[in-house]
Predict the 3D structure of the following.
Amino acid sequence: MKAVLTTLQMVFLSIPIMGDEVTKSTFEDIKVRAEKGEAVDQLLLGKLYARGVGVPQDFKMAAKWFRKSAEQGNADAQYSLGAMFDQGDGLLEDDKNAIKWYRKAAKQGNAKAQNNLAIMYNIGRGLEKDTKQSAKFFRKAAEQGHAYAQYNMGVMYEFGEGVPRSFREAVKWYRKAAERGFAQAQTDLGLLYAMGEGVPQDFKEAYKWFRIAAERGNAQSQFSLGVMYANGQGVLKNELTAYAWWNIASASGHAAAKRYKGIITERFSNNEICKAQALSREMLKNNPKLLK
């Protein structure tokens, strides 16, 4: 059984900024407006420095401009400043200040800040552990369509953390995050279908979600696909394909996949091992994203 605290997902500075390139004149225009006190441009300038777009990466300058914008009440800047205190980028790592700015942004409805504040409550970092408050803030962000928070809400329901335990609710929230492309949610949704928890057991549906996540490099789903091929669950039994998926997952460090691959190898002839390894290579050639 996975541990709740190590499964929750925090989100940091990953916001796209006007593409990957900013001309020198555009940068200077933004800087001029920021220096005149335009909060939106101060935020944007902070992002440019944080990402190193149009200027050498400089977290201290990023923090400076995030703070100027945050002090004017810009919620995105408040979240960004909180994240910098959280990670210790350009500023001393400071949980109290991270919480302070996350809370200001969360109060304005910033979903990223709500998600991160929920995690701080969940693990008792910088404040007293409170799983009910954690669930409250996860829900606020999840209801805005934030995939990390939707996944985290699923984790809370699966394990009964801050909310009554409910596999049905866990499936609901995992599905929402899975449909937004969140690979770990796709994996966990597949596991619940495979176990018949919160939904009728359905190996074909489990296979569907495992396959989607596996194609994006999720080692747990790759391992699970191997199990399904080895047992003929939701798919025709094929031990060579099982080996191929375990081979790929083990290359990403999945311990169980490495162990299962070793067990099945003992039953294979040299010719079968060669075929299975060739299949692994072909799969990886067709989709390099299988290995992260």
Summary: The first helix runs from residue 4 to 7.
